[in-house]
Amino acid sequence: MRARAVLGSLLFLLVAPGVVAGLIPWWLTGWEPVGDVPAALVIAGAALVAGGSAVLLHAFARFALDGLGTPAPVAPTAHLVVGGAYRHVRNPMYLAVGATILGQALILGRPGLLVYLAAFGAAVAAFVHGYEEPALAQTYGAEYDAYRRAVPAWIPRLRGR
Predict the structure, then answer these.
(1) Half-sphere exposure of 31 toward its Cβ, with a 13 Å CA cutoff?
(2) Which of 2, 7, 50, 65, by CA, is between 20 and 30 Å from 77?
(3) Chain centroid, CA 108 distance in Å
């Protein structure tokens, strides 16, 4: 079961975040910077891309190894995932993808990626509110309700749950 969860999570990682934080920004920019981007922005952007990527990989691993499933709605976890980054914020994957997009905008000096980031954020917020949270509440009941009360949705806290 664990091997299947790892394989499914890897596939979903390529399909969802790979397209949203990789393919679409490339389509929009060709990953070509606009003019001379200040070194400070490039460094900050690189830190955001590296940090976002690390958090994203960690979150996907938690789904597969702890939850025994994937982030994909068609192959959900058997257990509610509340460890690792999920101790600090309920939506680390979405925040990690957003950080990666923001980092690319800084590295490339591309304001258009900020517009894309805003659209991504609006779509994610609507999805979380309209589908994901109700589905988790229905699947995990009181366990999810307690988790939701204890851990913030969007602004990570320093101390874990």
Answers:
(1) 7
(2) 50
(3) 21
Q: Please state, in angstroms and rounded to a whole number, the distance separating the CA atoms of residues 114 and 147.
A: 31
Question: Do the Cβ atoms of 77 and 67 come closer than 8 Å?
Answer: yes
Q: Rounded to an integer, what distance in angstroms lies between the CA atom of residue 104 and that of residue 137?
A: 34
- Spell out the domain ranges in the chain: 2-150
Does the global pTM surpass 0.70?
yes
Classify residue 137 by its DSSP letter: H
Element (DSSP H or E) covering residue 59 = helix 39-65
Question: d(Cα 82, Cα 31) in Å, to the nearest integer?
Answer: 35
> Which residue has 């009181």 as its token pair?
142
Question: DSSP H helical segments within 66-132, as ranges?
Answer: 92-108, 111-127
Q: How far apart are the first and last CA of the chain?
A: 28
C-alpha torsion sign, points 73, 78, 80, 82: negative
Q: What is the CA radius of gyration of the chain?
A: 16
Two structure tokens written together for 158: 């320093």
